[in-house]
Amino acid sequence: MSARAHNFFAGPAVLPVSVLEETSQAVANFANTGVSLMEISHRSKEFEAVMNEAQVDALALMKLYPDEYSVLFLGGGASMQFAMIPMNFLVTKADYVNTGEWATKAGKEARLFGQVNEVASSEADKFNHIPKNIKFSGDADYVHITTNNTIYGTEWKSTPDVGTVPLVADMSSDMLSREMDFSKYSLIYAGAQKNLGPAGVTMVVIRKAWLEAKAKKDLPSMLKYATHVKNSSMYNTPPVLPVYVLGRTLKWIMKEGGLGAIQKRNEAKAKLIYDAIDACPGFYKGAVAAKEDRSLMNITWNLSTTELEDKFVAEAKAKKMLGLKGHRSVGGIRASVYNACPMESAEALATFMAEFFKANQ
Ligand SMILES: *Cc1c(COP(=O)(O)O)cnc(C)c1O
Prior knowledge:
By secondary structure, this protein is α/β, with parallel strands linked by helices. The protein contains 10 helices and 14 strands. Strand 6 and strand 7 form a beta hairpin.
């Protein structure tokens, strides 16, 4: 794959080249079966091994124990989890922290099932920081946060202290990008298409004790976490191809040295681009006000006019740097530098930013 562009798309997004190559091999002839990955039963021993290994590897990377947590691979995207979480766990009230558009959508779905306390919000400041010193209600059914705000470029750098209340997190855009104490969470979910694999599968990590003690029972089978835990994500046909790609991506993370090594590289990539922004104050305007909240995954900034932003995006594209246009709801520029984005891409972008400044200041 020689003609690779520099891929800064926010999602679906960049995947490791080795994973793409393994996948094309498996699409042609899966595990020497003589059939494609897309043509074989999900109950075949070859695919069951893919599913089991992905679950085992995910827990190993997160340093979680399989007797305490289950890993599920579900359809419906992260957006489906916005509804499934309150459907299963919201009895009286839940605390939601509103840090962006996705967090807002999660809260909106939860209101269909019970009382939602928006315990903190940065909406009045256009979501340019993560709220601090939050007062949680203390007796909620759970607390919901969004660890990385893909559209605005903010990220929680530490886990909030919510006492004994179960903590739930949408980690769609920073899942497995850094070391964290994942055992502080009772439920973690992530649409795969940002940092883990292709669209079509959502990874859910759930604390079994919470599920057994608190989940509602009178729900449709497919919308009940217990169904999928009991059947190890094989209650119905799982999204086999996305699960395969996600599984290979987990192996790739391990080969790269695990989350510690991945985090170091992500920090170095993000630093290159943030330094390029900060080197041209007034020309490049970082969209995140609180520098300590700057995301390692989605880097957002503005130029003085939309014309200049369009010129930036067009010239970058001519240099094979793709996906730099900000989200349609906020405009500006966004560089997404997920795990599989190579250092060379961040270097190319930082170099281009300095050149563009010189030519247009
Ligand atoms: C992309 C994204 C979503 C939505 O994911 P879908 O899989 O498209 O439903 C939710 N939350 C966050 C943080 C995201 O980045």
